[in-house]
Amino acid sequence: MATSEQRVALVTGAARGIGAAVARRLASDGAAVGVLDLEESNCGATVDAITSAGGQALALGADVSNADQITAAVDRLAKEFGSVDILVNNAGVTRDNLLFKMTEQDWDTVIAVHLKGAFLTTKAAQKHMVARKYGKIVSLSSISALGNRGQANYSAVKAGLQGFTRTLAIELGPFGINVNAVAPGFIVTDMTDDTARRVGVTPEQLQQAAAEATPVRRVGYPEDIANAIAFLTSDESSFITGQVLYVDGGRKMAS
User: How far apart are CA 18 and CA 187, in angstroms?
Assistant: First the structure.
């Protein structure tokens, strides 16, 4: 992160997986990081990893789909570290099923966490960025935005986040705010391990199948996504906005 001024980042869903890797990477690049998850107590491992390496981190608990909770968390971070310069909308859940089996609650839960959550968190954070005429916002989309069997809800929100990103790039660009999205392919996380067990295979079997379908012949890891986000939230990316970067080992190209 090429700046002499410390930036302050907020990463949602940062207790584990991609969010934790992003929080650690941004901290290693010099940012003070708000580590946000549904329960503040869940953030301990990520915060400890950052502080033990000499970084600064603050654990925050909030339901991203609750306006009062997320506004309070964002304002607390700004009060603690002086600003909110970077936002990574990573919080997410899955409720996979074929459409005829998918419940209304399955649909509403995924919509609330991904889309409403990104809306509320971005709305709360952008006021601090607009005031400073500086900001970097990255939302996590997915290769599933292109369509994926059994994920009508998840595919819809991940496609929606791409439209959300492009619109905010237009609206917030005049205030010095860059808005982009990263769309991961298959990433090894607890979530993909759970998917494997749900479909009746081992995580290793699912990973092998994913690697064979990927041009670079490997699966992705949370650090692969963190590397991309580190660039998009750096000052080196100041002329990049409204873009969706697929970090998928070439899977989109090969599909």
Answer: 8
Is pLDDT of 3 > 70? no
**Distances in whole angstroms, Cα of residue 226 to Cα of each of 4, 25, 40, 79, 182:** 21, 6, 22, 26, 10
Q: Has residue 2 got a pLDDT over 50?
A: no
Contacting residues for 101 by C-beta, under 8 A, at least 6 apart: none
For position 4, what pLDDT does the model report? 47
The reply to whether 154 belongs to the active site is yes
**Global pTM exceeds 0.70:** yes
CA distance 166 to 162: 6
Q: What pLDDT digit, counting tens, does each position of 145-189 carry?
A: 999 999 999 999 999 999 999 999 999 999 999 999 999 999 999
Nearest to 5 by CA among 30, 23, 26, 22: 30
Q: Which of 134, 154, 221, 246 is catalytic?
A: 154
State how far the Cα of 177 lies from the Cα of 46, in Å rounded to an integer.
27
The pLDDT > 90 percentage for the chain reads: 93
Residue of 82, 78, 91, 160 whose CA lies nearest to 124: 78
At 254 the pLDDT is 78
Query: Are the C-beta atoms of residues 129 and 177 closer than 8 Å to each other?
Result: yes
Given this structure, which CATH class describes domain 8-254?
alpha beta
Judge whether 161 and 141 are in contact, CB under 8 Å. yes
52 Cβ contact list (under 8 Å, min separation 6): none
Neighbours of 5 (CB within 10 A): 9
Query: Under a CB-based contact definition with an 8 Å cutoff, are residues 59 and 35 in contact?
Result: yes
